[in-house]
Amino acid sequence: VHVQQAFMLLSAMGLTILEPDVISHNATISACEKGSEWAFAVVLLASMGQASIEPSAISRNAAISACKEGSKWQRAIVSLATMDWTMQQPDTISYNAATSACDMGIAWQQALACQSAMYRCTLEPNAIGYSASINAGEKGSQWQQTMTLLVTMGHGVVEADI
């Protein structure tokens, strides 16, 4: 219900002197995330370009997180890859959201791939990404990979929270 209200408010902005902008779109995409309406979030993100509104990293990260909440890890990975094709580079939040989506979707290989991609992009992994990767590895019975991640955490600035 709240997601529908957010969409109605966003649509109504065009009927007033207020123009929808990146901030109002971000708020609506975030409402989709919280309401587990991943499909609406993805459509809204795509519609931003059609409305000549440049999506921000916040827009894209919120859409990736909405995919996580909807257990749509494949869509989260596509959204992450799309960021590489735009002027925006994925950040730690982008990778963490995609990794968490993979964890929820029991896609351990993709979760580990997201973690590896962070290193290639010279981003600093944090406890959120490590935890999601380790959880995904555990769900996939990949104890060797999870142990490797745990050891990797010990070599970095992230402390293992056991």
How are the secondary structure elements laid out?
Layout: H1 2-13, H2 22-34, H3 38-50, H4 57-69, H5 73-85, H6 92-104, H7 108-120, H8 127-139, H9 143-155
What's a quick, concise take on this entry?
The protein is mainly α and 162 residues long.
Quick tags:
162 residues; mainly alpha; 9 helices
How would you portray this structure in words?
The chain has 162 residues and is mainly alpha-helical. 72% of the residues lie in helices and 0% in strands. It has helices at 2-13, 22-34, 38-50, 57-69, 73-85, 92-104, 108-120, 127-139, 143-155. The longest helix has 13 residues, at 22-34. The chain is elongated. It starts with a helix and ends in a 7-residue tail after the last helix. The relative contact order is 0.09. The model has no long low-confidence stretch (mean pLDDT 79).
Largest sheet: none
Principal-axes shape call: elongated
Spatial separation of the terminal alpha carbons: 39 Å
- pLDDT under 50 segments (min length 5)? none
Derived structural class: mainly alpha
Helix content: over 70%
Secondary-structure element order, as H and E?
Answer: HHHHHHHHH
Mean pLDDT: 79
Q: How large is the count of helical segments?
A: 9
